[in-house]
Amino acid sequence: MAVRITTKLHPMQRRKLERLAKQTTDAAERTRHLIILKYDQGKGASTISKELHCSHSTPHRVARRFLELGEAGLVDGRCDNGTVKADERCYAVLAKLLEGSPRDYGWARPTWTQELFSKQIGAETGTSLCLGTISRMLKKLKARKGRPKPTVGCPWGKRKREKRVQELQELVENLPPGEEVLHEDEVDIHLNPKIGPDWMLPATQKTVETPGQNEKKYMAGALNAKTGEVHYVEGDHKASVLFIQLVHFLVEVCYPTAQRIHLILDNYIIHTGKITQRAIEALDGRGVLHFLPPYCPDANRIEMLWKQLHDNVTRNHRCPTMEELMIDARAFMKAASPFPGSKPSLRRTG
Is 15 within the bounds of a domain? Predict the structure, then answer.
């Protein structure tokens, strides 16, 4: 049988509940006050639940507590639950677990679930936490589910690797007048689109039509470490010829008056081969290559430019031909200079 408040609120009590409903920052507490005020207006549970967007049982439950306990029945009953189980130690353990894999702690599964979090926290702290508590803890830590970034370990020791990165940073900071320093790298552009996350409505999944027969183009790019200017050349093959073409473009077109051009780059074979070495030697010292430690892409600033290129152009693209895709890629590269001073978000006009 539905519970109704049959006794009208005293005017002073009504004004007090109205004031508390306006002042509280707790949405649940505000709803409880409004439920009693709406009962006082003669409304039923069905009408109240629709107006306040709560379940049909909530007005009944709140009304019963109010009739039994008065205004004290509108206070969150969980305040008497005792000490919070998820203390600072539990949060510290959860934060540590988020940095690793369950296999680091003897579990067979390679990725975390809330159940595993609960079991591992219980094993380390002796505190048993329900899945709802784990969910709230993850939300409080602002944890999210994302895609891990694949990496390859650098064979160099940490000290040697950091020393080399520091030397290259000092080169940028202490660059002599009349010289330029740029970060260099190549990027693959595939006609078959890279598939990545996008917004979708519930129970729907967008489709991205692929040409089927893949085609590839390549860009060799250079990012000025001082000005952010972006320079690039295109090619059909990712070979030494492409890299040498970029070097000549920098020396002869982009910086014809520079006494020396320093390129910070990785150890890819087209940068270290004999053809490349002879081409650099022919520049009589105007071109100098500075190699990063192996497998350290994060130390090469141009990697962020390539990420932006994929985010803005190649991921989930709908270009039917390679030429159309390259038109978008060229437009992006033009808009991206200087980088990261500009953050292009291209809009197609044709």
Answer: yes
pLDDT digits (tens, 9 = 90+) for 45-104: 889 889 998 888 888 888 888 888 888 888 876 655 556 678 999 999 999 999 999 999
In eight-state DSSP terms, residue 193 is P
d(CA 8, CA 24): 23
State the helix-helix crossing angle for 240-249 and 274-281, rounded to 10 degrees.
Answer: 20
Q: Which two tokens mark 315? A: 């991921």
Residue with tokens 């260099």: 184
Helix/strand number for the chain, H first, E second? 13, 5
191-211 pLDDT tens trace: 999 888 888 888 888 888 888
Q: Say which DSSP state 283 is in.
A: T
Pair type for strands 179-190 and 260-265: parallel
**C-alpha span between 264 and 302 (Å, rounded):** 10
Structure tokens at 307: 């990420």
Taking the model in full, what pTM does it have?
Answer: 0.68
Residue 186 lies in a domain: yes
**Structural domain range at position 122:** 88-140
Nearest-angstrom CA–CA distance, 350 and 348? 6
